[in-house]
Amino acid sequence: MITKHRKKQSTIANKLRLLKLSDDVQFSLNQKQITERHARAMLSLDEEKIKAEEKYDGYYALITSLINEKPEKIIQINKKRWAIEDCFRVMKSYLKARPVYLSKEASIRTHFLVNFVALTILKIIQKI
Fold first, then answer.
1. Separation of alpha carbons 47 and 52, rounded Å
2. Exposed, middle or buried: residue 40 (CB in 10 Å: 0-12, 13-18, 19+)?
3. CA distance 37 to 28
4. Fewer CB within 10 A of the end CB, N or C, for the chain?
């Protein structure tokens, strides 16, 4: 006797596709450590490309225009980048350097000069 299942064809097809996953992933799925949606996403991963890219794991690529500098110097400069980014963040948020509603070049320069001086004073106070 044949019984009729009330599952859509796409549901059954998705379940069958999950059988193509590695044993480890199927185990994680059965243990409810990952969802079926996550497991289906893993089906589209290019395992060969991932393996080929593993040789770059642990490396940090850095693009720079400082072509005449030694790598050690470039790394040293890059480590200070967070301080520069922090200064821009302070200027934009606390000092309200932007938006600028000025049109004359002299006014714009003065505005940023005042912000720069304020930032310099703030950084000196923070070092004390």
1. 9
2. middle
3. 13
4. N
